[in-house]
Amino acid sequence: MRALVVYCHPVEESFTASVRDAVIRGLNTAGHEVDLIDLYAESFDPAMGRQERVSYHEPGINVLPVADHLARVKQADALVFVAPTWWYGPPAMLKGWLDRVLVPHETFGMPKPFRPLERRLTNIRLLAAVSTLGSPWYWWLWVGQPGRRILLTGVGGIVHPRARRLWLALHSMDSASLAKRSAFLARVEAQFAKI
């Protein structure tokens, strides 16, 4: 399986970088091919400019600014997001990646009355997200898990309908002990090694 890992964190030595490494180790242990997109290392521009928005619905033109990343998504069997949850959602850099790379006609067909988006990323059979959250798990449930819903339900609506979905999260990150962080990393690696 070819797994595209989309990683998003501005600090090279962050705990999220350790999470990324655990995901990659697990995928390698399982014998999968890993393609890593490091949004900050690549200086990905998350802002959709005026002309890009004007051309957003134009097949063939809307892909030009993001052709490389889009091609990598379309070659993948698995799409794995590794990023912190900030203010209950993905960081702006990752949200901008979703806005700019998952373009209509290529990754989804536009909805019609009483019909949802058409799935065009049916090559994706595994959709996963691994995150850290400052909030405790019960507060995350209370606010409706918006970040999880964007990445697994929203993006899930354009991938294969029977794609496996996986969400792994470390809550109360700011007060998590070293033992709790280490246990989470081990769990992440083991989970991806079983895929």
Mind explaining what this structure looks like?
The protein has a single domain (2-193), classed as Rossmann fold. The model has no long low-confidence stretch (mean pLDDT 95). The chain is built from seven helices and seven strands, in the order E-H-E-H-H-E-H-E-E-E-H-H-E-H. The chain has helices at 15-29, 50-54, 67-75, 92-101, 137-142, 146-154, 178-193, and strands spanning 2-7, 33-38, 78-82, 108-109, 118-119, 126-132, 164-170. It has a five-stranded parallel sheet with strand order 2-1-3-6-7, sandwiched between helices. Strands 4-5 form a two-stranded antiparallel sheet. It is α/β, with parallel strands linked by helices and 195 residues long. The protein is globular and about 50 Å long. 36% of the residues lie in helices and 18% in strands.
Overall shape: it is globular
Average pLDDT confidence is: 95
Overall structural class, as computed from helix and strand content, comes to alpha/beta
- Which architecture per CATH? 3-Layer(aba) Sandwich
Which radius of gyration do the C-alpha atoms yield? 17 Å
Q: What is the overall number of helices? A: 7
Could you state the CATH homologous superfamily?
Flavodoxin domain
Give the topology string: H per helix, E per strand: EHEHHEHEEEHHEH
Main-sheet strand order equals 2-1-3-6-7
Q: Which ranges are low-confidence, i.e. pLDDT below 50, for 5 or more consecutive residues?
A: none
Task: Report the end-to-end length measured between terminal Cα atoms.
Answer: 9 Å
CATH topology: Rossmann fold
What does the main sheet amount to? 5 strands, parallel
Q: What is the count of β-strands?
A: 7
